[in-house]
Amino acid sequence: MEFAQRLKPLQSNVFADMDRAKTLARAAGKNVIDLSLGSSDLPTAAHITDAIAHSLSDSSTHGYLLFNGTKSFREAAAIWYEQKFGISVNPETEVLPLIGSQEGTAHLPLAVLNPGDFALLLDPGYPSHAGGVYLAGGQIYPMPLLAENQFLPVFEDIPQAVLAQSKMMVLSYPHNPTTAIAPLAFFDKAVAFCREHRLILVHDFPYVDLVFDDVGAVPPCPPSPPCSPSRKVMAPSIFEADRDKSVSIEFFTLSKSYNMGGFRVGYAIGNPEIIQALRQVKAAVDFNQYEGILNGAIAALTGPQDTVKTSVETFRKRRDTFVRALQNIGWQVPIPPATMYVWAKLPEPWAIDSVKFCSQLVQSTGVAASPGAGFGKSGEGYVRFALVESPEILAEAVRRIAEFQRAYA
């Protein structure tokens, strides 16, 4: 059979590749410690699952759910944003429910790009950002993220010829995989740059709450409006730089803050024209998820936030255990300021082949990690570990890594 040319760039995927490697390791009898996928192992809070469970017995929730039926969820999302950032949001025109934020980031290029148009993407970056551009027939200009630049792109390095054909820029901070946080001053610059070059500014924002306050990398609160009580341990929203929503759209998922990855629920907030364009694409692809899931999401956004703080503290303890253990075996890695990952520069002799390192590591030890090259060319020489196991298992993973290093020294 002959299939569309647009599938060719999608033949390789870092998560699919590691899934095959893990399957082979298990078949060989290895006890796999899976640190390759950023799927939280923490439980969803009881008040969230109770709301979903209660919905199951209500037959009025069992049918198709169209846009107007999501009004309560959109209102909850708008209030959540206003309370968190002091940004007014219109739930009718500036909020769009999504089946996970990945649906939005992958579908938005279909609404923005014509074949041949450029999208400016972070390199390394989350794979679905590139996948959506390829499906839309667009071209990708990778913006390298280097440690010496605090893993922020340098806009001045983008060629004018590329800018002339560009329609959108995608950012995502706190950043997966590098764990970097972008200060508000950077977002101010990004908004000004996109206005100047008539670009739509896309901000993927899943790790808004997973910021640690002990690294000194958290941006200060803006002087106006006043901060919420928890603002000091959050990353900035793009709308703190683009308060009138002139060029921007921001995606949020409940997968990380509320441990709802399997429920596939998120939303977009942004410029009404961009929201409407994405809504047109969404209408051609799906309706919405089950209403009971949205009822659970409403409970998450409007209910007690203690579990969010507990999750952040859990990942901080895991981070400290894992980083300390790596440093004790001679692998010097920086302390991540945010997210649920550790972004580690590979030691010799693996520094030029992260895929080989990860493949041989899981084959030899059962420890699965994600190769940096899977996130883009500038990710080569790094490996990403997801902190999705207990401190005891993370310590065991490092013990196995130490044995692996000694065997291949």
What's this entry about, in short?
This protein is of the alpha/beta class and 409 residues long. The protein is built from 13 helices and twelve strands. Helix 2 packs antiparallel against helix 10 and helix 4 crosses helix 9.
Kindly describe this structure.
- By secondary structure, the protein is an alpha/beta fold.
- The chain folds into two domains: 5-43 and 307-407, Aspartate Aminotransferase, domain 1, CATH 3.90.1150.10; 46-304, Type I PLP-dependent aspartate aminotransferase-like (Major domain) (Aspartate Aminotransferase, domain 2), CATH 3.40.640.
- It is built from 13 helices and twelve strands.
- It has helices spanning 14-27, 46-56, 71-85, 101-112, 127-135, 160-164, 184-196, 254-257, 272-285, 291-302, 306-328, 354-365, 391-407; strands spanning 33-34, 95-98, 118-123, 139-144, 166-171, 200-204, 248-253, 266-270, 341-345, 367-368, 370-371, 382-386.
- The strands form three sheets. A seven-stranded mixed beta sheet has the order 2-8-7-6-5-3-4, sandwiched between helices.
- Helix 4 (101-112) packs parallel to helix 5 (127-135) and helix 4 crosses helix 9.
- The chain is globular, with a radius of gyration of 21 Å.
Topology, pairings included?
Blueprint (H helix, E strand, L loop, with lengths): L13 H14 L5 E2 L11 H11 L14 H15 L9 E4 L2 H12 L5 E6 L3 H9 L3 E6 L15 H5 L1 E6 L12 H13 L3 E5 L43 E6 H4 L8 E5 L1 H14 L5 H12 L3 H23 L12 E5 L8 H12 L1 E2 L1 E2 L10 E5 L4 H17 L2
Helix pairs in contact: 1-12, 2-10, 3-10, 4-5, 4-9, 11-13
